[in-house]
Design a protein that fits this description.
The chain is α/β, with parallel strands linked by helices. The chain folds into 3 domains: about 130 residues, FAD/NAD(P)-binding domain, CATH 3.50.50.60; about 55 residues, Alpha-Beta Plaits, CATH 3.30.70.20; about 150 residues, Rossmann fold. The chain has 12 helices and 16 strands. The longest helix has 23 residues. The radius of gyration is 28 Å and the shape is elongated. The chain binds iron/sulfur cluster (2 copies). The site of one iron/sulfur cluster has 14 residues, from helix 5.
Length: about 450
C-alpha cells in the first residue's frame, strides 16, 4: 500500500524515496516479511497476492526507467490467480531479478540501506545495498487478527470484540463466527464460501487474503452458492452439505427437559428457545447435521429419515453369534462425508478388514447419540469404532464441530463401560480423512486385534 502511494504521487515519473525525496536507483522487495512464520507477532498464513503485487510494483520501476535495479527476495514465489506463472515471466522479461533467499537484517548504510540475506541457491551469505526496501507484510482481516481482541468461544470459533455491521438475530451473537485470524468460512476445502450462518456467503478478502482478480472470481462462486441456497429454501430443502434434504429436526416436547444441550451444541445457531426455554428450531438455518439429535440426553429429537430409532434398528438387525462361535461383531459408525467413502474406496482397492465388521454411515459423528454405543455393547457387540473428520483448529468436519463434540461425548463413555464391566478399549474414536484409504481398514483391524486380546463380550446371549 505504501509503495502504491509513492507510485501514485510519482504520476508516471521517477518514484522518490519518502524519507528524503531521493530518486530510487535500487529497490529490494522482501517477500513473506513476517508471514508464513509461527514467530510471535507474525502471520502464519500466506497472503496469496503479495508475490504478484511485488512483481507488479517492481515493473513500475523497470517501466519508468530500465536502469533501476529491482530485486525480489523470496523463499517460495507464489503467483496464484489469473496471471499466475505468466506474470512472473513478464517480470523476468522486464529485467526484474529474482533471488531465492532468506533476509536476516536490514540496516542503515550511509544514505542507503543494507539488506543481508542467505542466498538459498548459492548457499552463501550476501548483502546488497538498496535505496528503498519494500516489505511484503501481508493481508489481515479488518477484524480479529489481533488475538488480544478476539475471544475463543469454542474450538475453532472466535468472537471479535467489535461492533457488528451485520446485526444478526442469533443467540450466539450479532456477527459471524470467525476463524482464528478473523476470516470466516465454515469449511475451507469443501465449502469455501459458506459461513457458519446459513444463507450468508463470503467472498474476497473477507474470507481469505487475495487480490482483486481472485476476489472477482470468488464473488462469482459465492453468488452461485447463494442462488442454490435460495432455490433450495424455496422448496423447503436443506442447503449444503445435505443439499436437497427435505427432512428437518422435530422434537417431542413432552419429553424435553429444557436442558439446552441442543441449543448450545448446534454448530449453525439454528435453535432458539421459547419463553419456557423449550427449543425452537429454525428450519431455514438448519443444515440437517443431526448434532442436536446426538446431543439430546433424553433422545426426543429426530428426523423423518434419520433418528435414534432408525439407526438403533439397524444395530439390532445385525445377527450376533454366541460367544462360543468365535465370531465377534465390530460396529463401525462412519461419517458419510469422509470416513464412509474412505472405507468404500478401501474396498474397491482391495484393502481387507475384519469380516466381523458391520458399518453404519452417519450424517456426522456429531449426530451419534451415546445410547447407540451402550445399546450395541449391551446387545453383544464386542467393540465399536467411531470415525469422524479432523477436529480442532484446522477442522475438516463438514458440520464444523460435530466431530469435536463426538470426541468429547465419547471421552465420557468410559464410566458407562465401567458400569457394564467392559474394557474401555472396546470403544475407539478416530479422525479419518477421505484419503485414509489404507489407514481406515487398519483401524478396524486394530479393534479386531483388541477384541482377540480382551476376549468376547460377556453380553452375548
Ligand atoms: S440438525 Fe444440525 S443444524 Fe439443524 S438444528 Fe440440529 S444441530 Fe442445528
Ligand atoms: S437437548 Fe433434548 S432435552 Fe435438552 S433442550 Fe434439547 S430437546 Fe430438550
Amino acid at each position: 500500500m505504501g509503495l502504491e502511494k509513492l507510485a501514485k504521487a510519482a504520476n508516471g515519473g521517477a518514484i522518490k524515496r519518502p524519507s528524503d525525496g531521493k530518486e530510487i536507483k535500487k529497490v529490494v522487495f522482501v517477500q513473506c516479511a513476517g508471514q508464513r512464520s509461527d514467530k510471535e507477532g507474525h502471520l502464519n498464513y500466506c497472503s496469496g497476492h503479495c508475490c504478484s503485487t511485488s512483481i507488479k510494483q517492481a515493473m513500475y520501476f523497470r517501466d519508468q526507467n530500465p536502469d533501476i535495479e529491482t530485486t525480489i527476495l523470496f523463499t517460495d514465489l507464489r503467483t496464484p490467480g489469473a496471471p499466475g506463472e505468466d506474470f512472473y515471466r513478464s517480470g523476468q522479461e522486464k529485467g526484474v531479478t529474482f533471488r531465492k533467499g532468506v533476509v536476516s537484517d536490514v540496516s542503515p548504510a550511509g544514505a542507503s540501506l543494507k539488506v543481508k540475506f542467505k542466498d538459498l541457491i548459492l548457499n552463501e551469505d550476501i548483502s546488497e545495498d538498496a535505496d528503498l526496501v519494500v516489505l511484503a507484510t501481508g493481508q489481515v482481516a479488518n477484524a480479529g487478527v489481533d488475538i488480544d481482541v478476539v475471544k475463543q468461544d469454542e474450538p475453532g470459533e472466535w468472537k471479535v470484540n467489535a461492533d457488528s455491521i451485520l446485526n444478526m438475530n442469533y443467540r450466539q451473537g450479532k456477527d459471524l463466527p470467525h476463524l482464528k485470524h478473523g476470516f470466516n468460512d465454515s469449511h475451507f476445502i469443501c465449502f469455501p464460501y459458506e459461513t457458519r450462518r446459513t444463507g450468508i456467503y463470503t467472498c474476497g478478502p473477507v474470507r481469505r487474503p487475495m487480490d482483486i482478480p481472485q476476489a472477482i472470481e470468488d464473488a462469482t462462486g459465492a453468488t452461485l452458492k447463494a442462488i442454490q441456497s435460495m432455490e433450495n429454501a424455496q422448496l423447503g430443502r436443506a442447503a449444503h452439505p445435505r443439499s436437497g434434504d427435505l427432512s428437518y429436526p422435530s422434537f417431542r416436547k413432552e419429553g424435553c427437559t429444557q436442558c439446552k444441550r441442543c441449543t448450545v451444541e448446534c454448530p449453525f445457531g439454528a435453535i432458539d428457545e421459547d419463553e419456557r426455554r423449550f427449543p425452537v428450531f429454525n428450519e431455514s438455518r438448519c443444515r440437517r447435521c443431526g448434532t442436536c439429535m446426538g446431543a439430546c440426553p433424553v433422545r426426543v429429537i429426530s428426523f423423518e429419515n434419520y433418528s435414534v430409532d432408525t439407526v438403533g434398528q439397524q444395530l439390532k438387525a445385525v445377527d450376533i453369534p454366541d460367544e462360543f462361535s468365535e465370531k465377534p461383531r465390530i460396529l463401525v459408525l462412519a461419517c458419510e462425508n469422509d470416513a464412509y467413502p474412505a472405507l468404500d474406496m478401501a474396498a474397491m482397492q482391495g484393502f481387507q478388514y475384519s469380516a466381523f465388521t458391520r458399518v453404519i454411515p452417519v450424517r456426522c459423528l456429531g449426530s451419534v447419540n451415546t445410547i447407540w454405543i451402550t445399546d450395541a455393547l449391551n446387545s453383544g457387540y464386542d467393540g465399536a469404532v467411531l470415525m469422524g473428520c479432523q477436529k480442532g483448529e484446522n477442522y475438516q468436519c463438514h458440520f464444523v464441530k460435530g466431530s469435536e463434540l463426538a470426541h468429547v461425548r465419547m471421552s465420557k463413555i468410559d464410566d458407562t463401560l465401567k458400569t457394564l464391566n467392559l474394557e474401555p478399549e472396546r470403544v475407539a474414536t478416530y479422525e479419518v480423512a477421505i484419503t485414509d484409504i489404507k489407514r481406515a481398514p487398519e483401524l478396524i483391524n486394530d479393534m479386531a486385534a483388541t477384541i482377540e486380546r480382551v476376549g468376547m463380550s460377556p453380553f452375548k446371549f
